[in-house]
Amino acid sequence: MKQKNWKFNLEAFHNYFNEETAVIFIANPNNPTGTYNTHKEIEDFLLNVPSNILVVLDCAYYEYVQENDYVDVHQLLNKYENLIVTKSFSKIQGLAAIRLGYGLANASLIESLNRIRQPFNINSFAQKLAINAIDDKEHIQKSIDVNQEGLKYLSEELSKLNLTTIPSVGNFISFNGQFNGKELFEALLRKGIIVRQIDLYDMPDFIRVTVGTMEQNQIFISALKELL
Ligand SMILES: *Cc1c(COP(=O)(O)O)cnc(C)c1O
Q1: Strands 203-210 and 172-176, bridge-based pairing
Q2: What is the pLDDT of residue 5?
Q3: To which H or E segment does residue 55 belong?
Q4: What is the number of H-type helices and E-type strands within the chain?
Q5: CA 84, chain centre distance (Å)
Q6: DSSP 121
């Protein structure tokens, strides 16, 4: 098992890579579970990965995480030359439509990537939007607050319905119960609510719901109550 309590058991990763491994990819927080690995877990892992293997730490949900033991990206980047941390404008900034993300790594790794980069990739309009969005601390904080409140509300309400939730630090929560994910997904869709069935992740009796505004969260919970 690579997973333990729905989070990556990084110690077990060592059984899966060998001299042919080029890249190890870790989503932290992970999607669709919403669980995360701590700084210590990531660091213990990096200490034992040969430096010729590139480790990609996908931190798409970075800002949502409020836990003190979450990764300190600066510290890791200063120490590990084979690490790249990736982030996206699709999540906290809400700019999925501009199709822009970025990676943080040491200068020599970035220089290598730059050599194979397509000459025409990120358009200047998207870059301009991203520069403004990254400075919009007010929007980021507001999204964090709305998300914290929503996560708490959804996990409490789902538990009241006797559903099992996976503790999430992202902007979504996955849960299961006595239902088929695909059927519940379709029933919610007919009520105008789009969630995710996650059978592709081998979780056919789970549903992942994204945290919305409080009004949207409440609409979702009442629709769910009608269906269960
Ligand atoms: C959403 C997401 C991304 C970023 O996706 P974009 O292509 O930038 O929209 C990356 N990793 C994970 C785990 C995600 O959930």
Answers
A1: antiparallel
A2: 84
A3: strand 54-58
A4: 8, 10
A5: 16
A6: -
pTM, to two decimals:
0.94
Domain boundary among 118, 135, 152: 135
Distance 165 CA to ligand 1 centre (A): 22
**153: amino acid identity, one letter:** Y
How far, in Å, are 12, 51, 54 from residue 21 at the CA level? 15, 11, 9
Q: What is the CATH number of the domain that holds 177?
A: 3.90.1150.10
| Residue that is written with structure tokens 């969005």 in the block | 133
Q: Rounded to a whole number, what is the distance in angstroms from the first to the last CA of the chain?
A: 31
For residue 118, what are the contacts with CB-CB under 8 A and spacing of at least 6? Answer: none
Distance 33 CA to ligand 1 centre (A): 14
Q: How far is it, in rounded angstroms, from Cα 14 to Cα 30?
A: 19
Pair 75, 179 in one domain: no
SS3 225: helix
Please list the ranges in the chain whose pLDDT falls under 70.
1-4
* Ligand 1 atom with least separation from CA of 96: 9
Pocket of ligand 1 (CB under 6 A): 27, 31, 58, 60, 88, 90-91, 96, 101
